[in-house]
Amino acid sequence: MLQQTQVSRVLEYWPRFLEQFPALPALASAPPASVREAWDGLGYYRRAANLQALARTVVSNGGVLPDDPAQLRRLPGVGRYTAGAVASFAFERRTAAVDTNVARVLRRAFHPRRANEATLWATAEALLPRRGRDAWTFNQAIMELGALVCTARVRRCEVCPVRAACATGRKVTSDK
DNA sequence: CTCCCGTCCG
DNA sequence: CGGACTGGAG
Question: CB of A114 under 7 A from strand C?
Answer without folding.
Answer: no
